[in-house]
Amino acid sequence: MKLICCNFKMNLLKKDIINYLDVINNKIKKDNLIFFPSIPYISMFNEAGFKVGSQDISFKELGSITGDTSILQLKELGISYTIIGHSERREYFDDDKYISNKINLALTNSIKVILCIGEKIKQEKIDTEFLKKEIDEAFKNNLNLINNNNLIIAYEPIWAIGSGEIPSNICIEETIFFIKKHIFDKYKININVLYGGSVSLDNIDILESVKGIDGYLIGGCSLKPENILNISSKLM
Ligand code: 13P
Fold it and tell me: How many angstroms separate the alpha carbon of residue 154 from the centre of ligand 1?
């Protein structure tokens, strides 16, 4: 069953979360659905019986890092997943240098990782060197921890995020094939790959015809509960 990961980013307030839960409760399949709300609302989804994750974790387990949130604290809120290396974290918080370390912290704490990778600018052909570099930097010090089940790649071309545009089917298919093959050839791990970047009700049917997609990491479209009900019913 394909995964549906809803990344709310820094959106929605408590009243919106209450309404969201009202709209979806008892109407949606929970097994393949994971919510990544802002930290104050993680426990609301958890208490309603949904799987939850954080949008990031601190690079330290505990300590003097003002403004950061520890994985141990997030675990207390009920997370079983965390996104690592989202392009917005890489851009605004210099996260490139912490990726390997954050993956290590998550996996040693039994939290599954959704690792985001993707090129900045729309390319004529796949930028295999760039993708390999992002993958290898994330994997190199964590090989003893990563397995088929605890790390998922989200292929999110940065230019597609929030733009309303998605790559062509063939481009997504070839890129996902490349990511899976590189990881299998080099690390002997069969990895699942999500697609993210402007997933919407307008393109979900097109995306569903692409081979190799194991699920979606959805931003803007996931802010409306009706959209997620709709997408969830299509993927059943
Ligand atoms: P959009 O779906 O809003 O393009 O965001 C994608 C994303 O960044 C999910 O992590």
Answer: 11
